[in-house]
């Protein structure tokens, strides 16, 4: 929902949400696992690493891109000059107001980093 300084509200008739990415994430996991199995032996570390990385990409995309508000062509919203908006935030205390998905995504990225190091160490010495 968008509110103008005049107090008028605009609500999108269609909202595209992040769960629409689930099939894409599943296909990506399957594709990456098949590619790794062709090149080398698939270990549990490699599989977990691939899965966690794609889940991280899902959360990253869900936080940064979604929800997408879709307004039909000819809607009054297109007559409003949105291109002149600027947003800067230098307040370090806003880090504590992160969304739950952002925290989960950061945790998954850390876990992916750890598992990928474990997978590299295992493949070097076996």
Question: Explain this structure to me?
Answer:
Helix content is 52%, strand content 8%. The protein is mainly alpha-helical. Strands 1-2 form a two-stranded antiparallel ribbon. It has a two-stranded antiparallel ribbon with strand order 3-4. A hairpin with a 5-residue loop joins strand 1 and strand 2 (9-10). Helix 1 packs antiparallel against helix 2 (44-65). It is elongated and about 60 Å long. The mean pLDDT is 79.
Could you list the spans in which at least 5 consecutive residues all have pLDDT below 50? none
Radius of gyration, CA atoms, in whole angstroms? 21 Å
The CA-CA distance between the termini, in Å, is 56 Å
Summed over residues and divided by their number, the pLDDT gives a mean of: 79
Strand order in the sheet with the most strands: 1-2
Number of strands: 4
What class would the helix/strand composition place it in?
mainly alpha
Summary of the model, kept short:
The protein has helices at residues 22-39, 44-65, 100-125, and strands at residues 2-3, 9-10, 14-16, 68-70.
SSE topology sketch:
Elements (H helix, E strand, L loop, with lengths): L1 E2 L5 E2 L3 E3 L5 H18 L4 H22 L2 E3 L29 H26 L1
Antiparallel strand pairs: 1-2, 3-4
Helix pairs in contact: 1-2, 2-3
């Amino acid at each position: 929902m968008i509110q103008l300084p005049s107090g008028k509200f605009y609500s999108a008739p269609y909202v595209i949400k992040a769960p629409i990415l689930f099939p894409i994430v599943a296909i990506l996991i399957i594709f990456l696992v098949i590619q790794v199995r062709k090149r080398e032996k698939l270990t549990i570390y490699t599989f977990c690493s691939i899965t966690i990385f794609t889940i991280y990409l899902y959360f990253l995309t869900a936080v940064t891109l979604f929800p997408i508000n879709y307004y039909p062509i000819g809607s009054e919203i297109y007559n409003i000059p949105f291109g002149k908006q600027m947003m800067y935030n230098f307040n370090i205390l806003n880090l504590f107001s992160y969304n739950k998905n952002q925290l989960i995504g950061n945790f998954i990225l850390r876990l992916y980093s750890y598992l990928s190091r474990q997978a590299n160490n295992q493949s070097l010495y076996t």
